[in-house]
Amino acid sequence: MAPDSAPRPTPRPTPRPAPRAAPDRRHPPAPAGPTAVQLNHTAVLASDRRLSAEFIAAVLGLAVGAPFGPFLPVDLGNGVTLDYYETRDEPIQSQHYAFLVPDEEFDAMTARLEALGVTYYADPGHTDPGRINTLFGGRGAYFDDPDGHNMEIMTRPYARP
């Protein structure tokens, strides 16, 4: 066989990248997950979800969101919502909710409590009315919401051992 007539390898086609699909605008990609455990939302039982949600929103200077199923959310601004859930058939068990608030907002919040006729206290047992505490170099106060939940506003987080 002559050198020109030697069998040649069959040329292979050059691989082409697969066509990229257009992004599906109906189903955007899920956002990346957190890198640590975080509280996202919590249900707050209330005898009247609107009354309770509007109360805490008024005190904290926030807005009540649109209903989400049986919940009425109050967005706290750090990715956490209080989802108020109405239950009229059973008594509400009092819970404690503590809010870390900007120092420059604290006086406005206690003034809103006073305007609403709600007594605030320096202590969680509600024995020191009309006063605030100065724990951990900040300021704090406790008050009841319409269902008796013990709410707390504080400008400094607790120092943990």
Rg value: 29 Å
The amount of beta strand, in percent, is 15-25%
Strand order of the largest sheet: 1-3-2
Distance between the termini: 90 Å
Sheet of most strands: 3 strands, mixed
Q: Which regions are unreliable across 5 or more consecutive residues at pLDDT < 50?
A: none
User: How confident is the prediction overall: mean pLDDT?
Assistant: 89
DSSP helix count? 2
Can you give the helix content as a percent range? Answer: 10-25%
Number of strands: 6
Class from helix and strand fractions:
alpha/beta
- How would you describe the shape? elongated
* Helix and strand run: EHEEEHEE
Q: What are the main properties of this structure?
A:
161 residues, alpha/beta, 3-stranded mixed beta sheet, 2 helices, 6 strands, 16% helix, 20% strand
Q: What report would you give on this structure?
A:
By secondary structure, this protein is of the alpha/beta class. 16% of the residues lie in helices and 20% in strands. It is built from two helices and six strands, in the order E-H-E-E-E-H-E-E.
Could you provide a short overview of the structure?
This protein has 161 residues and is of the alpha/beta class.
